[in-house]
Amino acid sequence: MSAVTKTAPEARAHTYDVERIRAEFPILSRSVYGKPLIYLDNANTTQKPRVVIDAIRRYYEEENANIHRGTHWLSEKATEAYEGAREKVARFLGATSPKEIVFTRGTTEAINLVASSFSRDFLNAGDEILITGLEHHSNIVPWQLACERTGAKLVVVPITDEGEVPVDEFEKRLTPRTKLAAVSHVSNALGTVNPVKTFIALAHARKVPVLVDGAQAAPHLPLDVKDLGCDFYAISGHKIYGPTGIGALYGTEAWLEKLPPYQGGGDMISSVTFEKTTYNAVPWKFEAGTANIAGGIGLGVAVNWLSGVGLAAVAAHEHDLLVHGIRKLSAIPGLTIVGRAKEKAAVISFVLENVHPHDIGTILDREGIAIRTGHHCAQPVMDRFGLPATARASFGLYNTRAEVDALATAIEKVREVFG
Amino acid sequence: MTDLRDLYQEVILDHNKSPHNYREMADATRLALGNNPLCGDKLKLYVRIEGDRIADVAFQGSGCAISKASASIMTDSVKGKSLAEAETLYGKFHDLLTGPPDVKADGAGLGKLAVFSGVRQFPARVKCATLAWHTLETILKGQEAIASTE
């Protein structure tokens, strides 16, 4: 009896009420082809809780005005809300100051910003940019463009059969010519969690700055950019239960001060004449034009909401789904899971013997199950495994074991159709 | 399941499993590559044209059941046809796929190609069924994408 009362409060503290969380997402109660929606495409984009949807509506209904410009009441309200969102994102990422947060359209634009500005002043012919074989196209192509412009070279750390980036292979490729390393925190295609903290320490020992593509990590892991020590960290709002079209770049103040502006326009300047323009202070120096104000506000609400749920609890819940999913899917004859890293986020990429992923996707769709099929914007990863495509189920904080079971049952149905 | 059976008809599944004319062609006069970057489907189409006829046609590649079966049945359908006849067939096939999803497709004049009548209920899959035909089209139109095998 006494043992029960002792453990009870702790057990309660660890109770993760997935049904209560689900109830906060209006879309999860809809059906598809007459079946309840089972949304397992979270690495692609996540659904939005009501608080985020309400915040966007409230902004347009009650506070809509342009920011940083008006002297009127509404403009002040909008500016306050937008800059307040920047503070929330800074807190979410563990930044020391909101000045270190640049709002962007998403991870892609954040990486393009750094690739473009960095290459303008800090990259020359013969220099090297180091990336890994796990990267999403958005952490490959901006660097290829930067290399084309400057004559620098893109160096790629190869991945193992398990889908991991070996630390020694990374270290080997850090040379005196390496000017920047850009690595994903979590692979979108395979779910691999990279040892980015180790990568950063190794790179910094050689004075190489590091950009981390955190698009897939932010929804799954508690983040602390100061603890990681990275120079840049990029995230997308829509992958962390926030709106599309908004994301953020964390950059150390020192780097943001040093980098030249990305785009020119309104709001990024402090004065303009035809002879000479002086730029605004960071982070606004990187934010030309009228921002996605509603998106920024929605993102602020999303990160606060996510922190409220607690990323440690989310990680534990999703890990349970991952383990359960791997167990269920491994038992299906002819199914092979692609990417078996020791540290994995809740992503299961798989192929089924004699059935193309696209056909799996269509059949699952008719069962109300949404997954992604294709190359996941990571063609080099697919090439590495000699696959044109995979099917990918990716879990979010609102998914349940029952949904994972439904996935396994539906895959059995795929096998039936294809005999 | 009924919808799915409209899409994955037995004939389609058979052609997916054992596609016809799935081979390299040493004496092809035309070669075209088809590529669907969205799903990673890749297709290599070989054609031997004699006069204005398609004397032989074959393909290789990787893709979903729909794209593979479509390529297989296409090769059966256009072999021996004149270029103009193949063009007409493509037009009819295209209409079959892109007609209104709620109207039952009329497969008249399409022969075995009529098994793809269920595809129109799956708009996301129309591109899979047309990949082989688009590839053939570049050959029929004599466009730049065509590489000679010689």
- CATH class of the largest domain in chain A, anyone? Alpha Beta
How can the largest sheet of chain A be summarized?
7 strands, mixed
Strand content of chain B: 15-25%
**Looking at the structure, what is the overall shape of chain A?**
globular
Tags for this model:
heterodimer; A: 419 residues; alpha/beta; Aspartate Aminotransferase, domain 1; Aspartate Aminotransferase, domain 2; 7-stranded mixed beta sheet; 15 helices; 17 strands; globular; disordered N terminus; B: 150 residues; alpha+beta; Sufe protein. Chain: A; 3-stranded antiparallel beta sheet; 5 helices; disordered C terminus
Describe the model.
The complex is a heterodimer of chains A (419) and B (150). Chain A is an alpha/beta fold and 419 residues long. In chain A, a hairpin with a 4-residue loop joins strand 11 and strand 12 (277-279). Chain A folds into 2 domains: 2-49 and 310-417, Aspartate Aminotransferase, domain 1 (Alpha-Beta Complex), CATH 3.90.1150.10; 52-308, Aspartate Aminotransferase, domain 2 (3-Layer(aba) Sandwich), CATH 3.40.640. Chain A is globular and about 75 Å long. Chain A starts with a helix and ends with a helix. In chain A, helix 3 packs antiparallel against helix 11 (293-309) and helix 13 (357-366) packs across helix 15. A 7-stranded mixed sheet of chain A has the order 4-10-9-8-7-5-6, with helices on both faces. In chain A, strands 13-14-17-16 form a 4-stranded antiparallel sheet, covered by helices on one side. A two-stranded antiparallel ribbon of chain A has the order 1-2. Chain A contains 15 helices and 17 strands. With 150 residues, chain B is α+β, with helices and mostly antiparallel strands. Chain B has one domain: Sufe protein. Chain: A, CATH 3.90.1010.10. In chain B, 39% of the residues lie in helices and 18% in strands. Chain B is built from 5 helices and 3 strands; from the N terminus they run H-H-E-E-E-H-H-H. Chain B has helices at 2-7, 10-17, 65-78, 83-98, 126-140; strands at 30-36, 41-50, 53-62. Chain B has a 3-stranded antiparallel sheet with strand order 1-2-3, with helices on one face. In chain B, a hairpin with a 2-residue loop joins strand 2 and strand 3 (53-62). Chain A binds chain B through residues 33, 354-359, 362-363, 366, 373-375, 379, 382, 388-389, 417-419, and chain B through 1, 3-4, 7-8, 13, 16-17, 38-42, 62-66, 68, 122, 124-125, 128.
